[in-house]
Amino acid sequence: MQSFIEKELGSKQIISTAALMRAGSNRQYYRIVTKAGSYIACENSNINENESFFYFSHFFYQKNIPVPQVFYISEDRTKYILNDLGHITLLDLIIQEGHSEKVYELYQGILQKLAEMQIKASADIDYGKCFAAKQFDAQMALADLNYFKYYFLDFQKIDYDKQALQQELDNLSHAVGNIEELFFMFRDFQGRNIMIQENRCYFIDFQGGMKGPLQYDVASLLWQAKAELPLAWKNDLYAYYKSEVKQYIGIDEVKFDRQYSYLLLVRLLQVLGAYGLRGLIERRPHFLSSIPHGLQNIATWLKLYNLNDYPILHSLLQIITHVNLIESYQIPQANGNTKLKVLVQSFSYKIGGIPKDESDNGGGFVFDCRGVLNPGRFEEYKKLTGRDAPVIEFLETKTKVHDFLQGVKQVIDISIEDYLQRGFDSLMISFGCTGGQHRSVYCADVIATYLQEKYHLQVEVKHVRQEEKAWVN
After folding, report:
1. pTM score, whole prediction
2. Which residues, other chains included, contact 297 with Cβ-Cβ below 8 Å and sequence gap of 6+?
3. Which of 6, 113, 293, 347 could form a disulfide with 225 if both were Cys (CB 3.0 to 4.6 A apart)?
4. Where are the domains positioned within the chain?
């Protein structure tokens, strides 16, 4: 990856290259700062997915839809470089500002552009370029519903008639899969896939797009679990979206609203399945912490709409949205009264050894990273650190560092949650490797981010050996 970046942007122009945290996909992104500006580079081995992204980004960019511009593509089509749309997503902005008037107006602008993208701009799009499926049909809807069943419902150990439920899911999938009015469907249109830069919105991660019903995307946006939009906002913004759609096509509102309710349910269940896979199985903090929000969304849906034709599904949704189950998934998090501060640090066993605990509490965690393959054995990494993209790529693709950190997370979670409940004020977590340069630096940074994201903790990061050397190797 580094050689591709240097070839296209010029090695002498590059100031820094930093790997960005992965979300729910296998794509790896990097932010490259150069003397001429900032770029985003992506590496993805799924060439078909990349080709869809290249086509859709070029197509919509030409139609004045706010999407990133692709500047460079590698010969093997697995790497590419885009313009940098900044650090702030719509969801980030909501977390920072709350449900302000500015945020509401942004939603209106986003819905305006969504309707334009779906209907007007996509009029002559080639759906043969879709990499996964060309159209959202009954089969795809059933896959979404089964995703919920296998990755969330079946983890709750609820006894139910599996054959009867499957028949109801088949019926629901046909109800939404047979909608005839189809346009461009973004597929994962939510706040993490909308960048905000200078009060303008930009859409990313649309390579899974296909032909589908309009209502799916607006349901995805307005009912995103972590956004927690007030119900009044959801209703008003949905009405605003319909007014935008009417500028391009005529709609039967009664029929449109009924379809919306079912598509919304399918989306909410699919998302809960994703939370199950990424959270319950893969233990990713963002998805784990989203489960209560996802369940609450379904509870709200049950109050607004009826499932009279789907009694088994209805009863199961009532069970999983019971307050006791929702509370069982609540993760304790820091707030304004939280005393706990966590120090996460890296150190060298060879030089200096295990750092002294300055808190006077004693103890804390010390994790030995020397069982992870050392990038420092290889000449090309010797002058780099665990914050440099080539080292991060090496650790993530050629070592067992993910397995190592998975165990670390399971161990420290027990103490973090206990300390939060008991009002403790400090905890030290240290990672050591031979030189305190590669493995320990990477692990400390990953765990610090993990604790901030999952528990909203105040985390101090200290790299003992690298700070002594002023990061010069």
Report:
1. 0.78
2. 223, 225, 268
3. 293
4. 2-83, 90-328, 341-468
